[in-house]
Design brief:
It comes from Ovis ammon polii. It is found in: Mitochondrion matrix. Pfam families: ECH_1. One of its GO terms (cellular component) is mitochondrial matrix. Its EC number is 5.3.3.8. This protein has one domain: Alpha-Beta Complex (2-enoyl-CoA Hydratase, Chain A, domain 1), CATH 3.90.226. Helix 5 (121-139) packs parallel to helix 6 (156-163) and helix 7 packs antiparallel against helix 11. The chain has a 6-stranded mixed sheet, sandwiched between helices. Strands 5-7 form a two-stranded parallel sheet. By secondary structure, it is α/β, with parallel strands linked by helices. Mean pLDDT is 88; it is low at 1-43. The chain is built from 13 helices and 8 strands. The protein has helices spanning 11-15, 39-45, 75-90, 113-116, 121-139, 156-163, 190-200, 202-211, 217-223, 235-247, 251-271, 273-284, 287-302, and strands at 50-55, 60-65, 96-101, 144-149, 153-154, 166-170, 177-178, 228-230. A hairpin with a 4-residue loop joins strand 1 and strand 2 (60-65). The structure holds ligand LOHRUJSQ. Ligand LOHRUJSQ binds next to helix 4, helix 12 and helix 13.
Length: 305
């Protein structure tokens, strides 16, 4: 699978990349974006953990994460997301994608902590490459990406949302969004910090990153982390209206402008991807970091209700 930024996929994906995209959505598709039929289109794009509901008429695909219970970003989900996005991007029918969750109450719980605990350096290397790849693929996408955030959106979930062009958040006080890495005893890599700064500014990022702040909807709107907060049942329709606004602009001009705005940030990572991986692997392998993550994961498992 030729991917621009060179992520290594699991062996079965390399041998038969589309094995990850076999249709598992038959009979389960909901109506597609813009009221069109998802039927045959859904068969083209669906995968086990990523449902894609394409609407060729509007040129918009709704991509839903389905990795229950909390859409944690496992290696498999990261891989399927990258492949699904690439597939939609390569189909010139599509000009926009709405990213949302098929799991109730959670957009994404962020990186899968079981991928970060008790594994070996080769696994961490593969995993971090996949994280980088998803970020590059979304951040530099020529498509319009709108996040319809219909649930909690911490850490890696927020990172996906930040890579989109526009964010619509459901107005539920439990749906917090932000980068809370410090509360897990880990730090945000420079390229995610840069994305935060680009979105909410330096001072707000400095404060929010150090405190590991997770913002409820009203505060997320105030700080500029999301563009709209709407009642939960209007998240998708609002995301579609936003999409229409962005698609009203000629593609070439919008794309050139997006590249102009984002290239420097992405280039900083592209110039030092290998060093960033080594940095991550040596950091995550430290005993103290492993301990912090295990304590956090244990607390999560014990915290019920
Ligand atoms: C250089 C160092 C590394 C830099 C990395 C920088 C970038 C990003 C980092 C990250 O993304 S780290 C992950 C941070 N994520 C979180 O802190 C979120 C943790 N989860 C929650 O707060 C809640 O689960 C939720 C998302 C608000 C949902 O709450 P809900 O009450 O609906 O579900 P729970 O009962 O809490 O969870 C159900 C089930 O899922 C497990 N789980 C939750 N989050 C994760 C996760 N991120 N990874 C793996 N597993 C997770 C949780 O333990 C429960 O499991 P069981 O007890 O049912 O087995």
């Amino acid at each position: 699978m030729a991917l621009a930024s060179g992520v290594r996929f699991p062996a079965r994906a390399l041998l038969r990349p589309w094995s990850l995209l076999r249709d598992t959505t038959l009979g389960r598709s909901e109506p597609a974006a813009g009221g069109g039929g998802g039927g045959d289109g859904a068969r083209l794009f669906g995968s086990q953990r990523v449902l894609v509901e394409p609407d060729a008429a509007s040129g918009v695909a709704v991509m839903k994460f389905r990795n229950p219970p909390v859409n944690s970003l496992s290696l498999e989900l990261l891989t399927e997301l990258v492949i699904s996005l690439e597939k939609v991007e390569n189909d010139k029918t599509f000009r926009g994608v709405i990213l949302t969750s098929a799991c109730p109450r959670v957009f994404s719980a962020g990186l899968d902590l079981t991928e970060l605990c008790g594994r070996n350096p080769a696994h961490y290397t593969e995993y971090w490459k996949a994280v980088q790849e998803l970020w590059l693929r979304t951040y530099l996408s020529s498509l319009v990406l709108v996040a319809a955030i219909n649930g909690a959106c911490p850490a890696g979930g927020c990172i996906i949302a930040l890579a989109c062009d526009c964010r619509v958040l459901a107005d539920n006080p439990k749906y917090h969004i932000g980068l809370n890495e410090t509360l897990l005893g880990i730090t945000t890599p420079f390229w995610l910090k840069d994305t935060y700064v680009n979105t909410i500014g330096h001072r707000a990022s400095e404060q929010a990153l150090q405190l590991g702040s997770l913002f409820p909807p009203s505060e997320a709107l105030q700080v500029g982390l999301v563009d709209q907060v709407v009642p939960e049942d209007q998240v998708l329709s609002t995301a579609l209206s936003e999409m229409a606004r962005w698609l009203a602009v000629p593609d070439h001009a919008r794309q050139l402008t997006k590249t102009m705005m984002r290239k420097a940030t992405a280039d900083r990572l592209l110039r030092q991807r290998d060093a960033d991986i080594q940095n991550f692997v040596s950091f995550i392998c430290r005993d103290s970091i492993q301990k912090s993550l295990q304590v956090y994961l244990e607390k999560l498992r014990q915290r019920k209700g």
